[in-house]
Design goal:
about 1000 residues, mainly beta, 22-stranded antiparallel beta barrel, five-stranded mixed beta sheet, 8 helices, 56 strands, globular
């Protein structure tokens, strides 16, 4: 008999009397806990008689025996996913048997009903999935299996898979890093940095920024668990969603296969060009409304993927391996320049086109060792690498032709290697222990072609070039530079105990995480950026708050509004974050139909600067979580559930880079008389005022006691969910109501005024107080915060207990509610379908850790809270608000050889803003430039400037598995069939950052469109 065949051997017809005496209830209960790598089998014998339950994995031979308790219940946790045979034995005889599928992170329920011993005969009952409702979970997660990935037209990346879950939308395109990921997902209105990503329970979220994750070869994925909230106290560190990947494993059956995927450039639709928006300019030159900003019609590429896998037994029933490899090569080209000015068009003729090659090799190796029936060990290693090579050549915006003469380029290499060990021990029938430990390291290499450190970066704003002047450049590097040896390292471990006593299952555990990053950035190749500008009103000061006068005050060409700004921004840091957590939990089976889940979690975190000194820490973050589920009819056809809890999120290590370490981020404004004919740097400079820095970042070292409030609260939110699910005539339907509210946020304030007022009230020297420059500090908006600052400059830190009123901020507000409705038709060998509709509202005064209004990626250090004036009229519908969402997916097995599939997504458009200058620019808090919710001097509340077009995408696929070649499959998928390229975002900053009267040419211009239509072919063989 094939060991992987879940069907039991055939029994004689004479046994039907005993067979009819049995009733078997089975629910493949997806009690998905966010980072679980194992599942469980549980159930009961209703007659309450004693016996032994034997559980055997039909694929690996793993065998467990457990006694039924006094009430006829049994539970076996910590089981690897796979097919199992379960039987009940009494007096050495098998009295009932069932086959069941265990899913990682889920509980699989089995009810074994036996006749009286005198009537016992040998028989087997096989369970099937059917459409039973999961009555054991207090949440409603989504599980995507390897079969779904094979059958559906799904792009091979975690972001595309996450978008299948209800309430999940693509975030702002600013948070992308092709080819690794694009448009990271937003769960339930949260910022895209607030998600957590795991592989076999190990966190693979980017430790430096919390933006991005590690990927696996697609053939290594067994299932993906998508949790939008409500998960238990075992896990935390996410206020968005959780994406957990569980890898495949070897079994007693040998398996191998491979796949090739081809995405041809010739079948890709042309991306939309980007044009200038309604900026009011009509000067007959680049940058005017409606003129071309970026030519993109030829920004095309092709992708080729080759992958293979093999798995099987090293020692049958004991030791197994699985290995998978994948190589992705993407080649393409497109414009790397913009028609923003005559100077930019001229520069594009030498380096405006970018040809690139992305090479992404990935591998995974896994060993599973059943040491004994009571002890199991898993070892997993995987690598995710992204190598990017780019060549810059000339592009002529006059005729859209390129010259193929290389003038610049770049090589980038990001390589991640991760190693994980997982242990499961069944110490007694009631006590199970699990443990995990792992390490990961990512190395970063960034090598610009023809980088010349003596050449500055030069740009000329539209209309800012002086007639008769030439603005050349000798710097062809365009990317931010990273230091040699840049890397990120993580180390994680956890220990969990589970003990069953009566109607209670008690769990407790501890987990530990440490992340370290060596990072740095030189934002402007050549060390500085000369930005040539022109003000429509030459008499308007460039930065009045910092004492920087008007262009006219500098004389010469300044009288006509011409000036230049020198930007300098660089730094280097060695950063560390340490996190710990403890939890305790009780699963109480109150009655046969009611289950309560009660838990308490406590988390700690500490962020360290380059000197190893903690500057932000929290030793107590208490998170209670509760849940309940009710099997209304007692037959798994109608379930009512609810959960409520608190969820915390720590700061990524990058916060120290700007917040705790001394970097340089300055500007200087000048009037000039000439331009260097080689470098493009200005000559004949007349300063318009002192060098300034909005956040006082002049490279000075910072005392760790001054960079954060000493009583810093956590970033956390509360969430509550109510729902019901019902099985009706072969279908599953359900409804869920969710509510999330952000209780506290961490960001930085740069407002010196509250400190000055407190210092003067305390009698400090007024002259010293007036000269003090605040360097910004992390705090909790809307709460009282305690700081230490040396306001009078005497070398001694003073304590400042500032109330919320003293600081002048409202509390951070982000609220999300949603009604989710779903319909699902489980696959019966013919067809499968699922429909999700979400009605939601996401509003408040902050997105969370990020600021998508202008794509700022300084996590927890956004412009948002720097001054109270920036938050005036900030309340409204947030960037991740989508009122309506509709998602449909399914597949239909037309015949044994042919299958068709499809997926459709719809989401309402994003709200738009008009972000301008503060009406009173002489106000210290009003000097940030075009970053306020005011438009042309009038209040412009968040989200009040209309709505972008809706997002719609239809994907279709066809599969052919020829009967003459078993294991061979050919596929063709068309993504975005209707070629809907919708505007994802627009530039919302209305004015130039250095002129309150000059509308920016970029105002209202589209920043990005959704991807165009493309076609993908694949051939796959599974043996």
């Amino acid at each position: 008999m094939n060991r992987n065949d879940p069907s039991p051997p055939h029994r004689a017809p004479g046994l039907r009397r005993s067979l009819l005496a049995l009733a078997l209830g089975l629910a493949l209960a997806h009690t998905v806990q966010a980072q679980e790598t194992a599942g469980s089998i549980f159930g009961r014998v209703p007659d309450g008689q004693a016996g032994t339950v034997v559980i055997e994995n039909t694929e690996t031979g793993l065998r467990r025996e457990i006694a039924v308790d006094g009430e006829g219940r049994f539970r076996v946790p910590g089981l690897p996913n796979g097919r199992y045979r379960v039987h009940l034995a009494r007096d050495g005889q098998v009295v009932a048997e069932a086959a069941v599928l265990v899913t990682a992170g889920a509980g699989s329920e089995v009810q074994l009903l036996a006749s009286q011993p005198s009537e016992l005969e040998t028989y087997v009952v096989t369970a099937s999935r059917g459409n039973a409702i999961d009555v054991t979970t207090v949440e409603s997660p989504v599980v995507i299996t390897t079969e779904d990935l094979k059958n559906m037209p799904i792009a091979p990346n975690l972001t595309a898979i996450a978008l299948l879950a209800p309430g999940v939308i693509p975030g702002d395109s600013a948070y992308s890093d092709p080819p690794r990921f694009s448009a990271l997902p937003s769960f339930g209105g949260s910022a895209v940095s607030e998600n957590a990503y795991y592989i076999n329970g190990y966190p693979v979220t980017n430790p430096l920024t919390s933006l991005g994750y590690s990927e696996l070869p697609f053939n290594a994925i067994d299932q993906i668990q998508l949790s939008t909230g409500g998960y238990g106290v075992e896990y935390g560190r996410a206020t968005g969603g959780v994406v957990n990947v569980v890898t495949k494993r070897g079994t007693n059956e040998w398996e191998a296969g491979g796949q090739v995927i081809w995405r041809p450039e010739g079948l890709m639709a042309a991306p939309r060009n980007i044009y200038y928006g309604r900026n009011g300019r009509a000067f007959g030159q680049p940058g005017d409304a409606g003129r071309l900003y970026q030519y993109r019609n030829e920004n095309l590429y092709s992708t080729r993927t080759a992958s293979a896998y093999v798995g099987g037994p090293i020692v049958e029933d004991t030791l197994f391996f699985y290995a998978a490899g994948e190589f992705v090569r993407q080649e393409g080209g497109g414009t790397d320049s913009y028609a923003s000015s005559n100077a930019a068009i001229e520069a594009a003729r030498s380096n405006g086109w970018r040809d690139y090659t992305y090479r992404t090799p990935r591998w995974l190796g896994k060993l599973d060792w059943n040491i004994t029936g009571n002890h199991r060990l898993e070892l997993t290693g995987f690598s995710d690498r992204a190598k990017q090579s780019a060549d810059l050549t000339g592009f002529d915006y006059a005729n859209f032709e390129r010259n193929h003469i290389k003038t610049g380029g770049q090589y980038r290499d990001d390589k991640t290697n991760t190693w994980i060990a997982n242990y499961t021990g069944y110490l007694t029938d009631a006590l199970t222990v699990t443990g995990m430990f792992g390490r990961s390291r990512t190395d970063h290499v960034n090598e610009p072609y023809q980088y010349d450190p003596s050449c500055p970066t030069v740009s000329v704003a539209p209309g800012a070039g002086i007639a008769g002047f030439t603005y050349p450049t000798c710097q062809y590097a365009t990317e931010t530079l990273t230091p040699a040896g840049a890397n990120d390292q993580t180390r994680n471990g956890r220990l969990d105990l589970e003990y069953r006593i009566g109607d209670h299952t008690l769990k407790a555990g501890y987990d530990y995480s440490k992340a370290r990053s060596l990072m740095g950035e030189e934002f402007y190749p050549g060390g500085e950026w000369w930005e040539y500008l022109r003000s429509n009103d030459p008499n308007t000061p460039v930065a009045p708050v910092f004492g920087v006068g008007s262009p006219a005050s500098g004389g010469g060409y300044g009288a006509e509004g011409y000036y230049v700004v020198r930007h300098v921004n660089f730094g280097r840091s060695n950063l560390e974050v340490e996190q710990k957590a403890q939890y305790i939990k009780d699963l109480w089976q109150v009655t046969d139909t009611v289950l309560l889940e009660m838990g308490l979690r406590n988390e700690q975190f500490a962020n360290y600067n380059s000197a190893g000194e903690a500057f932000a820490k929290k030793n107590r973050q208490i998170a209670p979580r509760f849940g309940a589920t009710w099997d209304v009819r007692g037959d798994s056809t109608l379930k009512v559930f609810a959960n409520a809890g608190r969820y915390h999120l720590a700061l990524p290590s990058q916060v120290a880079y700007r917040g705790a370490d001394g970097i340089v981020n300055t500007q200087e404004a000048f009037v000039y008389t000439g331009v260097d004919p080689v470098t493009g740097a200005p000559t004949g400079l007349t300063p318009l005022g002192p060098r300034w820095s909005e956040n006082n970042e002049f490279g000075q070292p910072k005392d760790p006691r001054t960079v954060a409030a000493t009583n810093l609260r956590s970033h956390y939110q509360d969430a509550v969910t109510f729902g019901l699910e019902q099985a009706i005539s072969g279908f599953n339907v359900g409804a869920k109501a969710s509510y999330r509210t952000l209780r506290s946020a961490i960001d930085d304030t740069c407002d010196a005024r509250p400190f000055r007022r407190a210092a003067l009230a305390a009698g400090l020297d007024p002259d010293a107080v007036e000269d003090w420059q605040f360097q910004c500090a992390l705090f909790n908006p809307g709460y009282a915060n305690t700081f230490y600052q040396d306001v009078d400059g005497d070398g001694t830190l003073e304590r400042y207990d500032l109330s919320a009123a003293d600081l002048g901020y409202d509390k951070a507000k982000r609220k999300y509610y949603a009604i989710d409705l779903f319909f699902e038709r489980p696959f019966d060998g013919v067809w499968y379908a699922r429909v999700d509709y979400t009605f939601s509202r996401n509003w408040g005064n902050t997105e969370g850790q990020l600021q998508s209004d202008y794509g700022q990626d300084d996590v927890s250090q956004t412009v948002t809270w720097d001054y109270p004036e920036l938050m005036e009229h900030a309340n409204g519908l947030l960037p991740n608000h989508r009122k309506h969402q509709l998602k449909l997916r399914g597949y239909w097995q037309l015949s044994p050889e042919w299958m068709i599939s499809g997926s459709f997504m719809y989401a309402s458009g994003r709200k738009r803003n008009c972000i301008g200058y503060y009406p009173d620019q002489e106000n210290e808090g009003g000097g940030y430039g075009s970053y306020y919710y005011y438009c042309d001097g009038r209040p412009a509340p968040r989200g009040s400037y209309g709505t972008l077009p809706s997002f719609q995408r239809l994907d279709l696929g066809v599969r052919y598995a020829p009967g003459w070649a078993k294991g061979l499959t050919f596929s063709a998928d068309v993504f975005n069939v209707l070629n809907r390229q919708s505007a994802q975002n627009v530039v919302e900053n209305r004015f130039l950052q250095t002129s309150s009267t000059t509308v920016s040419s970029a105002w209202d211009r589209v920043r990005s469109y959704t991807p165009p239509r493309y076609v993908q072919f694949s051939a796959r063989y599974d043996w």
